[in-house]
Amino acid sequence: MKDLGKVNAGQLFAFWKNLTLSLMVLMATLLLSRLLPSYFSPIIGLIAAAFLYTVLYNNRLRSNSSCPIVIYAIFFCIVAYSFVSIIINVLDIWSVVPIPKELSFFNEPYMCSLVLDPVTVIVLGIINLRGNKLSICVDCRITKGMAMERGKLGEILAIETRLQLRNLFWLFLIFSIAVWTYFFVWYYQNALVNNRDWYIFVWINIIGIALDLAYFASRYYNIYLDLQDSGEIITEAELSDMTTKTYLRFYAICGNKIFINPKVADPRRQGMFVIDTPLLTKRNVNGITTSEVHSIIKRMTGVDAKLRFFFGRKSLDIAKHRILRYFYFMDEVDGQPPKLDIDGEWVDFNVIKTIYNTKPAALSNTFLTDLSRMVTIILTQKLFDERGYRKMKVKSYVPTIDLKEIQEKDYDFQDDKWIRVAMYNSDQRGFYFKKWVNRFFGKEDKNKEGQIQRRR
Q1: What is the pLDDT of residues 341-352, one digit of tens each?
Q2: What is the C-alpha to C-alpha distance for residues 353 and 371, in angstroms, rounded to an integer?
């Protein structure tokens, strides 16, 4: 499964391109607001926002493996700027709040950076505070998997997206302080606007953004070189020549025990070992039948037992690869788990749960994410109904989970419904208010229809 941890060079470029596209749209908004008549400024902002929304929508349709969080953030920044500028101008026209002429797009000169910069700081601050709770991040984790599940690319995206958002927050905070300090201290409102004024209110933003883009271009080029030196880059030529692969992971279970290998080489740390299932294999095929899968695991273990599908996911990072997980339920022999024809040992699931809760780094990335999905789906079904409301009002209640009930009950681990409930339920702040808003606008009924269609 080493190929799944590698990075396609095009993915790094796409990641930088998202940042570049977003900031170039922002630069164009500033520049066009300077070149065109000032009353076009809110229209320019809304057109820019519509363009970014189209980019986001197309990325979603194509299931792009890159992270569009910066496009998402700048989209909301420009939308907020457009509406805030319209609102303060309407309040000025109604004589509710008098504003300087530099903030009114009905007057000349109009300095859009005086509104755009602080609004961008506020929006980026909110996005940074919400972090992984953003709806776009929740959908990404559900459809594409957790960062650790996506190998090196997931690690890079998780770190770099947060870095980009923090960088933009501080960049526009500096811009805001600079333009407003200049406006109050050195700018003469009743005098003609000179070149220095335009430099501060327009060009300092554009030059600062351009330098930021150059920094990130250099940063990602160096990351690419580091990955290339460590052999973690897959070129486009290698991808085109790569055959379709289906990776199979099996979890052998007997009662409440699971078969694991505690000394699997850790690909992240040289010379270190992690816990994982030893029952791994791959086939150079696109599709594989259940009977073929059963034959494979029977040959691997030397035991004929009950096979059940766990869940599967197609790799969006390497389109020709996918991973399928299965449970293999075995019966005891003379009161003990059967001896398997493969290196490993039977361990009580309570021990694995303890490791999972106290030392998750001791588990392989894939084993950790598979356990997380299994535990999350089971516990969520026990605690909440499909709408996200608690079944039991006692919040201190913690349900138990063991491997026997997985064999006895028909849990659907492929369905993402319970993952969504786990991320957004009545234990979360604002849950009841959002439910009320969804009912008021009829979104709840649409969500139910969408869930029914996905199940079909």
Answers
A1: 888 999 999 999
A2: 9
